[in-house]
Amino acid sequence: MAKPKISSDWMCGCAGCHMSLLDMDERILKVVELADLRSTPITDLKEPDESGVDVGMLEGGINNSANEEVAKKMRKRARILVALGDCAVFGGVPALRNFCGIQEALQRAYVDAESNEPGSQIPNDPELATMTQTRAVHEVVPVDYNVPGCPPDADVIFYVLSELAQGRKPELKDELLHWD
Amino acid sequence: MVQLTINGKQIEAPEGITVLRAAESAGIKIPTLCDHKEMAPFGGCRLCIIEVQGFRVPIAACTLPVSNGMVVNTETEALKKSRKFILSMLFSERNHFCPFCQVSGGDCELQNAAYHEEMTSWPMQPGWKKFNVDTSHPYYVLDNNRCILCRRCVRACGELAGNFTLAVAERGASSMIVADYDVPLGESSCVKCGTCVQVCPTGALIDRASAYQGLAGTMKEINSTCTGCSIGCTTTLRVRDNRLVRILGNWDGAVNHGLLCEVGRYKLVNDQRPRLTTPMLRKNGKLEPVSWDEALGVVADKLKPLAGKNAVAAVASTRLTAEALTGFKELFADHLGSKTVTSLEEGVNTAVLGEVAEEIGPFEGRIDFLRNADLVVCFGENLVRNHMVAGFLVKRALPKGTRLISVDGEASDLDELADISLKPAAGSLTALVKGLSAVIVQEGLGRAELKVASPDKVIAKAVEASGVPADRLADAARTLAHAVCPVLLIGTGVTAPREAGTIKAIIELAKLVGAVDDERVGLLALKGKSNSVTAAQLGLDVPFAVNGQKVVFAALGDEIVPDPMLAKLSKAPYLVIQSAYASPLLEKADVVLPVALWSEQEGHYVNLDGRVQKAVKAVRAPEGARENAAVLGEIALRMNMPVKKDWRAELKARKSSVVLSGL
Fold this sequence. Notes:
The complex is a heterodimer.
Chain A lengths: L4 E6 L5 H7 L4 H8 L1 E2 L15 E7 L2 E3 H13 E7 L1 H5 L11 H11 L18 E5 L9 E3 L6 H12 L15
Helix pairs in contact in A: 2-6
Chain B lengths: L1 E5 L2 E5 L5 H7 L23 E4 L6 E2 L9 E4 L3 H17 L15 H8 L16 E2 L5 E4 L8 H9 L5 E4 L6 E4 L15 H5 L5 E3 L12 E6 L8 E7 L2 E7 L12 H6 L12 E4 L2 E4 L2 H12 L8 E5 L5 H14 L5 E3 L7 H10 L14 E5 L8 H8 L7 E5 L6 H4 L2 E3 L6 H14 L12 H12 L3 H13 L3 E5 L1 H4 L4 H13 L10 E3 L6 H6 L13 E7 L5 H8 L4 E5 L11 E4 L8 E4 L5 E4 L12 H11 L8 H6 L11
Helix pairs in contact in B: 7-19, 8-19, 12-13, 12-14, 12-16
């Protein structure tokens, strides 16, 4: 049997979950031994194979039209979809803006913030993606495994990937289960 | 006792307890969020649902009493599924995003419950309703966004602290915790006891000082005794890196059962006075830092020639340990033969009690009697402000029908709470108390024998002297006589005038109404600071005055010296202070000896009802500050008059008004 293919991508997150993935240090060689690492934000290949991958991992929530596209593409091409980290699982820190709404958040970030130059404007280039409410991945596409944590420990990611690569269901509990 | 089966295990449980408590006592853990062992069963969160054979649907274990033959299951697949659903609903209701919450990672009961069910996510997303965060309180922050509406805080505020500040406003998903009629917490009737913060299962009530300072699991927890006042509440000190981070009430505390007041929980942690860490000597009119060796040498040289001449006046804080107070007394009274060896309290709260005890032996009972009192008479103490925890025990009983009579010549916050408030004119308390007894005797309501010659005259005298109307006096007397379990509390207003007659009249009244009989002693004086009783037992209870003495030694410890005492100390011709903090006395002091705080030394305290309790050294004193008892011992040693008396023996040397226990 060929090695299972793994892809990942990030959306509305902070890249921290991928940093945590790198934190597994030399164990990444073990992952490479078990699986074929395809597209990730930290490798050259940028999109999951059109022919499909076995495991797709998404970091970050979905807060604009571009994220939606990434999530849908990954869902379409991955047999198993993993939501990696709190933003992907719950919406996380970016979801806090849902409490005040998009306009207020943009106004605060681009205009009112003390660090902004006077006369700053909210970017309005038509090429920009359209902002939406921040959502967890499962609100947009079906998710097979939720791996919470901010970020999930390298141990957790290694455990999940190695279990999936060996055709087992990862079960998060005790030390491996934390939401912060 | 009833027999029941939980998860196949045969259990015997006393009748009347809930299934939850029965399971707990059998070591079976049922997850809960709203339940609290010190509060009445509530049944709010539904997390403790169980299956009972013969019941159609799952039921909350926290409100279900045990019954014989009950067959209970707590961990079926269906229950686990239901619990996950209940938790999902709680999580999706508000802002329960864990990464930026100060209790996440072990201190959050909601999160722990989710981990217990192995939840990796919840299927619903929040309604994104925003609640304002109330930051108006000096000690805590109320964030309704993180509230799960378990109402523990509301119940703690009323059921435990008797304050009834917190309540729930609005309905359904808009429900929120408010103070009073929705005013900012900082402007509310909150008495700042912090019980609500201690019981909050999530991060909705945030302790300002300790938030984000580390999780409980990363700190050392040390059980100790509060040194705030004479009640002697048991505390749990959280310490990290030699820093006292937080004080919690200890639920197993014999006196307080978890309660604390503002002083015990917050003021003791957050004392802003500048610390003293270097011994100082006045040289050419200016205080200058010197070595401990030099400072102690100067004090010893100054004191030694004065031995036997009654030329030293010494005063000590009643917040010092029993060990330090014993050394203090031995050094100044026994070795130096000073007549003026006393405490900052000067026996205001205890001397007269000791005087009566010399005559009749112990006559006071335990604070525990407050717990089932149906009437409390408080003589001369504002329990809302002083001895707050005792006040909580009284206030929380009022809605259950316990009556309160306040007898206080001074304006008191109890006046508003009391069913009957008597305001005797100054100096008329004895007459008033005798008048109360006379009414009871006259109307034949007494539960014990008491002979009163011509009660009419006694009543008339009471009315005339006190200015309390006759009908109100009679009303109070009848209320007292009809109570089944009355408790009489004696405050500073009674003890300060040092009139043994008043105490005796109150004892007489207590016996007459059955507050004191063979089985129970519902009579207790509130005393003063944490070692008030110890100071009294050591005889450190005479008025302090500088009257021709050459040296005044003030062992202040960590106490704030009251103004009248500051004035007296300022008259000292030569003043030695032993103090943890800077105070106005530094301007006057000739020698300054920096000492440890309550939390930096170990020692014993005797609380208001005679319990000998230990306060534990939780942190190291700053470099330069030494422990109180050690400083006194060192001075004595340098004078070749070592102190070696055993504090336990000294405590027993004099008859006490309370029964000393734990010695």
